[in-house]
Design a protein that fits this description.
Layout: H1 4-17, E1 26-30, H2 37-41, E2 49-52, H3 57-67, E3 73-77, H4 90-94, E4 97-99, H5 103-111, H6 116-124, H7 132-141, H8 150-162, H9 169-177, H10 184-191, H11 195-206, H12 214-228, H13 237-240, H14 252-262, H15 268-278, H16 281-285, H17 300-315, H18 321-330, H19 337-358, H20 367-394, H21 400-429, E5 441-442, H22 446-452, E6 458-463, H23 468-480, E7 487-494, H24 501-508, E8 514-517, E9 520-523, E10 526-527, H25 531-541, E11 545-549, H26 550-554, H27 558-564, E12 570-575, H28 578-584, H29 593-611, E13 616-619, E14 625-626, E15 636-637, E16 647-648, E17 653-655, E18 664-668, E19 678-682, E20 687-688, E21 697-698, H30 704-707, E22 708-715, E23 727-728, E24 731-733, E25 739-740, E26 744-751, E27 759-760, E28 762-770, E29 780-784, E30 795-801, E31 813-819, E32 824-833
Parallel strand pairs: 1-3, 1-4, 2-3, 5-7, 6-12, 6-13, 11-12, 15-20, 23-27, 25-32
Antiparallel strand pairs: 7-22, 8-9, 9-10, 13-22, 14-21, 16-17, 17-19, 18-19, 24-26, 26-30, 28-29, 28-31, 31-32
Helix pairs in contact: 7-8, 8-9, 12-14, 17-19, 17-21, 18-19, 19-20, 19-21, 20-21, 20-23
């Protein structure tokens, strides 16, 4: 393919051949550097014949003066023009024309410039302009004109070669750094003669005076940045060789600023991985405490080592929970936080579990006393146990130590918690003659309670197997949700026994009496099995009452919902995510809890937004017990089926007569209505040996986990005047100074509200911009999620780095504090940027 300079030359030659003077044209073209040799020998001219000189002067002379006296000729001589006395073709040359092809002049004409200063740049780097693609790219980056700065043209050319979107030296250096291993882009710099100029500019930009090698530069920049953001002392010579010593040379701060500026690039992950291996960072971290590098996120190794170190400490029995929590909370601002979020969540839940276990005190007392203890304190053990196990299963890599920690938590949960609380509550039930708990609402009394508080329209959501501590989590979600605007309260409620779906669902319906016959529960004489039957039971109480499955109402659009609710005043919604998982794949029961909570929350918000119905009750038919570990065979009661009970399950028997079975409790079903049957349950968390699988997820018995369910009441939606009481926590800049005198500086931000009740965490993005809204600094993120009462613990320090541009003390610059979730500005503060002696590098 012909070069663009040759195309330009050919245009000029054709113009010469077409001059209308009625004579044939003979044009000599001497090309000593042979720049156009390949182009000419492979080309043809429409209005002339081409003769190539190859020491064949006689042949050329013969063709022009004897053989063809009519045609135009281009005589191309890929050599220097000889002296006239030595030129065998001088006689023809004297009556012919001569063409001079100055490639630099051709290029400048094509670029429409004539500036002699720019000619030097084009002449030195003429090969760059051989490609029309490169020229087009250059035109997209800079405006090529006569009065342009030489550096602007050179930087634009280099930007094209390294495929940079911008012509600034920091952008060019960024591209070279991310290509440091292959160095294809740097080879382009060498090929087109920009090496010396580039390193001069890098030296000016970053005060870099080290080895002129991109590999050496980035290792030095990153190790220097690490050194500036850690508390490492007594480093070996291997590491100090890569550190710019700010006491002896410039460039330490510039190195940190550059590294901070490239962290947000998607290519940074791969780059830092290679650099960390070359710098042997893992070896270094093994000899240092995690508090030495807790504020550094230059390399992923720091987060990885923090996870490993805290895991090892917790596994070995360390009780330094405050220290571990402080370290993890500080990592929220690490660029690797999201990558390790599940690991950090796992560790925080393990810490929460140990705290709950360490403060565990199970007092002797009545059943009612123990229920209150469970509701107020003990259920938090279950909460953190569930969170620990569920987050453990989300880890990308379940490391051996994480697995051992989870196993240790399993053992502690079983031995120090379940066995103790199970024994205590069983002992308290031995003295009970009836299934009654003064001071606590029971599921049989649920409808009466609802009726007392019934609004014009109301929903009851019954989530199968949502035990009390899950209800507590849902309450917290409701309180802090930015859309749901209701007051929510949580109460404990005691289920029927057996703590099983049929009995629980029947008890929650309007009931005069509940009878048990042929393994079916009848409410007011109507079978309570299935949604259709429950709908009938509700309608016998009131024709405006109804029952519906969650999936059905959740699938309705706005118009369908409004039409459905036109003649309804009370609707029971049946939700079955947790129990379904437990019955079909018990190992997933903890995994689906978040799904269940999110579904319920989403439904309530949708119903409120669509229908403006403000009253909701959320409860469950029963709870459950789940243990990840394999259950010991000794906990099984044998030969139960041989006793021929009416119904046998792992956690209960239903019989017509009293049976004398050791280590069991027995209660009559007469508390439901005219029933003569009895319920027999094993002690604590033991179970009967019956056919069928499923012993990790169990319910039906009388443990606190099975019989205490949540009752959440949402009501009294807030007005617009109360908005400030809900939503994300407030954030403001704490630093008083509004003048910046350095390219790198710290600012403090204050979370002036703690995370609690209706105040939730906030994701914050901060940066500086100019009057035109252009960013003049890097972007920095942090999460305001502290629940500490101590305001000093709710301070976040951010180190800003300004871009390498010219700042004017007379112009306005603004600090932008943005809520990244809502994409809205929280605070906008004007600053003066007055950096003395700062000269930007274009």
């Amino acid at each position: 393919m012909a070069s663009i300079d040759y195309k330009e030359a050919k245009k000029e030659l054709n113009k010469m051949f077409l001059e209308d003077d009625f004579s044939r044209k003979i044009i000599f073209w001497y090309d000593e550097p042979r720049n156009f040799y390949d182009d000419v020998i492979n080309d043809e001219f429409e209005d002339a014949k081409v003769l190539i000189y190859d020491k064949n002067s006689f042949e050329i002379k013969h063709i022009i003066e004897k053989q063809d006296l009519q045609s135009n000729f281009l005589v191309y001589l890929p050599c220097a023009k000889p002296r006239d006395i030595d030129n065998w073709l001088i006689d023809i040359l004297l009556y012919s024309s001569e063409y001079y092809a100055d490639t630099v002049a051709l290029t400048m004409r094509r670029l429409n410039i004539s500036d002699s200063n720019l000619r030097n740049v084009i002449e030195r780097h003429s090969k760059f302009f051989d490609s029309e693609q490169r020229i087009n790219k250059l035109n997209s980056l800079v405006i090529i004109k006569n009065n342009m700065n030489e550096e602007e043209l050179k930087n634009g050319m280099i930007a094209v070669l390294v495929k940079s979107k911008y012509t600034s030296i920091d952008s060019i250096l960024r591209e070279l750094v991310f290509d440091y291993e292959i160095q294809e882009k740097y080879q382009e710099i060498l090929k087109y003669g920009f090496e010396e100029y580039l390193w001069d500019k890098i030296s000016e930009y970053a005060n870099y005076s080290g080895q002129q090698d991109v590999n050496a530069l980035i290792k030095k920049f990153m190790m220097t940045s690490i050194n500036r953001s850690t508390h490492f002392t007594n480093l070996s010579a291997f590491y100090t060789q890569f550190i710019i010593d700010e006491t002896k040379e410039k460039g330490s701060e510039d190195a940190e600023i550059f590294v901070n500026s490239i962290k947000s690039d998607s290519r940074y992950s791969e780059l830092q991985l290679s650099i960390s291996n070359e710098l042997r960072i893992d070896e270094l971290l093994k000899t240092r405490g995690i508090d030495d590098f807790n504020s550094c996120d230059v390399l992923e190794n720091f987060d990885k080592r923090i996870v490993e170190s805290i895991s090892e400490s917790l596994h070995s029995g360390s009780l330094d929970y405050d220290f571990f929590e402080r370290i993890i909370e500080n990592r929220v601002n690490s660029i690797w936080y999201m990558q390790y979020k599940e690991h950090y969540s796992f560790l925080l839940n393990v810490i929460g579990f140990h705290r709950a276990i360490d403060s565990l005190v199970i007092k002797n007392g009545s059943s009612e006393d123990l229920i209150k203890e469970y509701v107020d304190d003990l259920s938090m053990v279950d909460y953190f146990y569930r969170k620990t196990i569920s987050t453990f299963k989300t880890l990308d890599l379940n490391t051996e130590i994480a697995s051992e920690i989870a196993t240790k938590v399993d053992n502690i949960y079983e031995v120090k918690y379940l066995s103790k609380i199970g024994d205590q509550f069983t002992n308290s039930l031995k003295n009970k003659n009836n299934w009654e708990f003064p001071g606590f609402l029971t599921t049989r009394e649920f409808y009466v309670h609802v009726q007392k508080n019934q609004a014009k329209k109301m929903f009851v959501i019954i989530s199968d197997a949502m035990r009390y501590e899950i209800g507590y989590e849902l309450l917290e979600m409701i309180k802090t949700d930015p859309i749901l605007k209701g007051n929510a309260k949580l109460f404990p409620m005691i289920t029927s026994i057996p703590s099983e779906t049929r009995f629980g669902m029947a008890s929650l319906l309007p009931n005069r009496d509940i009878t048990y016959k042929d393994k079916t529960l009848f409410v007011n004489g109507i079978s309570s099995v299935g949604t259709d039957n429950r709908d009938k039971i509700l309608k016998t109480k009131n024709s405006s009452f109804a029952a519906i499955q969650f999936e059905t109402i959740d699938a309705m659009n706005r118009n369908e919902l409004r039409q459905y609710m036109q003649d309804k005043s009370l609707v029971y919604i049946y939700h079955n995510v947790i129990d379904n998982a437990g019955e079909n794949n018990e190992n997933k029961v903890f995994d689906v809890v978040n799904e269940a909570l999110n579904e319920i929350l989403k439904l309530v918000k949708n119903l409120y937004n669509t229908l403006q119905i403000a009253n909701y009750y959320i409860t469950a038919d029963h709870g459950f017990v789940y243990r990840r570990r394999t259950v010991d065979e000794s906990q099984k009661y044998s030969d139960i089926v041989g006793l021929k009970p009416i119904e046998a399950s792992k956690r209960y028997l239903i019989t017509n007569d009293e049976m004398d079975i050791p280590y069991t409790l027995s209660f009559g079903l007469d508390y439901l209505g005219a029933n003569t049957q009895r319920v027999i349950v094993p002690y604590s968390y033991d179970f009967f040996k019956t056919p069928g699988g499923g012993i990790q997820f169990i319910h039906g018995g009388t443990s606190l986990h099975e019989i205490v369910v949540p009752l959440i009441h949402i009501s009294e939606l807030r007005s617009d005047r109360q908005k400030e009481a809900f939503g994300p926590v407030g954030i403001r800049i704490k630093s008083v100074q509004r003048k910046v005198k350095e390219r790198s500086f710290n600012l403090e931000f204050e979370q002036y509200e703690k995370v609690e009740d209706k105040k939730r965490e906030r994701n914050i993005l901060v940066y500086f911009e100019d009057e035109q809204g252009e960013k003049v600094s890097g972007e920095y993120r942090f999460i305001a999620n502290s629940s500490s009462d101590d305001l000093s613990q709710r301070i976040t320090k951010i180190r800003f780095s300004l871009k390498n541009i010219d700042f004017d003390r007379n112009k306005r610059y603004f600090l932008i504090v943005r809520d990244s979730d809502k994409d809205e500005v929280v605070e906008k503060e004007q600053f003066v940027i007055d950096i003395l002696g700062f000269k930007p590098i274009i």
